[in-house]
Amino acid sequence: MTETTGRPVADPALWPAPLAADPVDATVTVPGSKSVTNRALVLASLAAEPGWLRRPLRSRDTLLMASALRTMGVEIEETASSSTAPVSGTAGSGEVWRVIPAGLHGPATVDVGNAGTVMRFLPPVATLADGPVRFDGDPRSYERPLHGVIDALRALGARVDDDRRGALPLTVHGAGSLEGGAVEIDASSSSQFVSALLLSGARFNQGVEVRHVGGRLPSMPHIRMTVEMLRAAGARVDTPEDGGEADVWRVTPGALLGRDVVVEPDLSNAQPFLAAALVTGGRVTVPDWPRYTTQAGDALRDILTAMGGSCELDEHGLTCTGSGRVRGVDIDLGEVGELTPGIAAVAALADGESVLRGVAHLRLHETDRLAALAQEINGLGGDVTETEDGLRIRPRPLHAGVFHTYDDHRLATAGAVLGLAVDGVRVENIATTGKTLPDFPELWHGMLGTSAASPAGARA
Ligand SMILES: O=C(O)C1=C[C@@H](OP(=O)(O)O)[C@@H](O)[C@H](O)C1
Ligand SMILES: C=C(OP(=O)(O)O)C(=O)O
């Protein structure tokens, strides 16, 4: 692309990933968790009384969730300060959303975008509406698995019209209530099937009993998050982990409490920043890292340590420090699949081979993440091969090039991590980070002490 003067100009769709001139040394405050925010919105909407979310994530996925619940009749008031909330939270300043539940209504139309949490958590909610709720979304949402939720809802008494059988778009014909009861699903393609049924289960006449039958269930921490948030809202939940049958979860019918939820920082979105410490031999602190959490991102402490860094959790938050050396790992990421793109980027810069296992289901995430990572890292000169359930990454010197992102926020942040160490990486559609981390470019430049207008080390 050239101006009329013939001078080359930057393509605005290609973000010049800043090269780290020095080891990073920064504190990065990471916005709220997508997974906590969207569960809290659903649970608050199903509760018997109003509730609050403090420091919710404001991103495409969470705004889609809020707007979907609003179209079904829930009131969500957004305020800038916590002063109106007469409750015990200690979130301090920041945004507060007040959720006022109401009888759920149809007809309504829900745009799920490409948010797994919206497309899976809301059809069960829609069975409680008093009319039809239509679900549609981005083209990719049509390809993401939904059969577990649709088949289960039918088995539990709902009427669902899915022209494409087991996929979006679809209509849930809400009848004001759902019988509920016991159901078997194969959730090996997404833990969100289980979470979806449990989240609404307390509002079904007979509650719900979900039995997973099939291959390995991924992302167990996310199911634990669902269980713990349900319990905090007053639901009785029986799980395999408290002596119940393997792969069976049960939610007893009952009213849910309105809560005052302080949303934790999104630990999976902390990943690129912590990875920056590792690949530049620097140091990054993420404040407010919870001492106890069900978030998958907490596994980063161990993973980044195994890759050559050191991570310390203290009153300042989590600080990860790079040693100047990045080690390859052989690791099963099945429990924490959403961390895979960022780990793959670090692994491509390591001093030895890595094997990332247990993540075959990533082929049906925002994009086919295994194919996309192999393609894009190899496009920069890397040596990545897809295995049956993951990636084999052999580090090689990388070179400048365009890193395509396939509308996947985690591909975009992975490209930024590579750009720290490889001169001339341009990330296509950095704005796609807005799915869960809208201010990513500003946060990234802030961490590096550069500015988007004249980033040191960046090339237009
Ligand atoms: O329930 C959740 O909030 C999530 C569960 C996981 O989904 P899968 O089990 O489909 O991987 C995870 O990857 C996703 O980012 C968020
Ligand atoms: C898989 C992810 O998202 P979703 O909630 O859309 O499934 C993710 O954020 O990595």
TrEMBL record:
Transmembrane segments: none
Lineage top rank: taxon: Bacteria
Keywords per UniProt: Amino-acid biosynthesis, Aromatic amino acid biosynthesis, Cytoplasm, Transferase
GO function terms (MF aspect): 3-phosphoshikimate 1-carboxyvinyltransferase activity
InterPro entries in the record: Enolpyruvate_Tfrase_dom, Enolpyruvate_Tfrase_sf, EPSP_synthase, EPSP_synthase_CS, RNA3'P_cycl/enolpyr_Trfase_a/b
The keyword Transport is annotated on this UniProt entry: no
Pathway(s) served: Metabolic intermediate biosynthesis; chorismate biosynthesis; chorismate from D-erythrose 4-phosphate and phosphoenolpyruvate: step 6/7
Keyword match Amino-acid biosynthesis: yes
EC assignment: 2.5.1.19
PROSITE patterns tied to this protein: EPSP_SYNTHASE_1, EPSP_SYNTHASE_2
Function of the protein: Catalyzes the transfer of the enolpyruvyl moiety of phosphoenolpyruvate (PEP) to the 5-hydroxyl of shikimate-3-phosphate (S3P) to produce enolpyruvyl shikimate-3-phosphate and inorganic phosphate.
Similarity comment text for this entry: Belongs to the EPSP synthase family.
Name the UniProt record assigns to this protein: 3-phosphoshikimate 1-carboxyvinyltransferase
Organism of derivation: Streptomyces hazeniae
Name of the gene encoding the protein in the UniProt record: aroA
